[in-house]
Amino acid sequence: MKKVLLVEDDLVLQNLISEYLEDYNYLCSAFSNPIDALAFFRENPDYFTIAILDLGLPNMDGFDLFKKLKQIKDIPIIISTARDDIGNKIYGFELGTDDYLSKPYEPRELVLRIESTLKRYNKADLLQIQELSIDINSSRVFLNGIEIELTKIEKEIFLLFINNLNKVISREDIINQTSLKYDTKNRTIDTHISNIRYKIDDGSKEPKYIKSIWGIGYKFFYDN
Question: What is the residue-wise DSSP string for the chain?
Answer without folding.
Answer: -EEEEEE-S-HHHHHHHHHHHHHTTEEEEEESSHHHHHHHHHH-TTT-SEEEE-SS-SSS-HHHHHHHHHHH----EEEEES--SHHHHHHHHHHT-SEEEESS--HHHHHHHHHHHHHHHHHHTEEEETTEEEETTTTEEEETTEE----HHHHHHHHHHHTTTTSEEEHHHHHHTSGGGG-TT---HHHHHHHHHHHTT--SSS-SSEEEETTTEEEE----
